[in-house]
Amino acid sequence: MFFKEFLQKKALKKARQNLDVRYLDIGDFKSVGFVLSVDTEIVPEAINNMISILEHRGVEYKGLVLNLNNKNNVFDCDNENIIVLGKGGINFAGIPDISKVNDFIKIEYDLLIDFSLDYSFAADYIVKSTASHFRIGRINYPDHPYDFVISNKDVSHRTYISSLIHYLSSIKAL
């Protein structure tokens, strides 16, 4: 257990991507990344909803779906902008294989959203490894990487996305 925690702490120290925090108005986002864990059957609906919103606004996007429980038939995606990472893409310490997530983390995003309902080391590592000017998360924990947390665990992904869009529309960049 201690060895696993040691490896995780070491990986997180290397992973940290620090960019100046810069919030843009919702209409000015050029690129958005999102991380989503497969935790319910509603995930495909939430992803499709998110994609349609981004495509409607002409925003480039990339998504990373964590299927760490290897749930069968929960998520099947033909979208080239969505990467699905299964349990085979994670080592024994919970650290994602960089070759599996590199296409996601190499992009610099204006906005990065972590939809995870519960803490996941893999999601934490990916969010911290990804260069983004503004990060939004759903859970609050020590040393979280987010610039803004909307703690709303008891609602569906669809409702959360609506709340997120409301907050992003209400906040004005300086």
Task: Please provide a written account of the structure.
This protein is 34% helix and 17% strand. With 174 residues, the chain is an alpha/beta fold. The protein has a 6-stranded parallel β-sheet with strand order 3-2-1-4-5-6, with helices on both faces. Helix 1 packs parallel to helix 4. The mean pLDDT is 83.
Class from secondary-structure proportions:
alpha/beta
Strand element count: 6
Reading side by side through the largest sheet, how are the strands ordered?
A: 3-2-1-4-5-6
The number of helical runs is 5
Report how far the terminal alpha carbons are from each other.
Answer: 46 Å
Task: Please summarize the sheet with the most strands.
Answer: 6 strands, parallel
Outline: globular
Strand and helix order = HEHEEHEHEEH
How much of the polypeptide forms β-strand, as a percent range?
15-25%
What is the share of helical residues? 25-40%
State the low-pLDDT regions, or none: none
Radius of gyration, Cα only, in angstroms? 15 Å
Overall residue-averaged pLDDT value: 83
What is the fold's blueprint, element by element?
Layout: H1 2-15, E1 31-37, H2 43-56, E2 60-67, E3 82-86, H3 98-105, E4 111-114, H4 121-129, E5 135-137, E6 148-149, H5 157-170
Parallel strand pairs: 1-2, 1-4, 2-3, 4-5, 5-6
Helix pairs in contact: 1-4
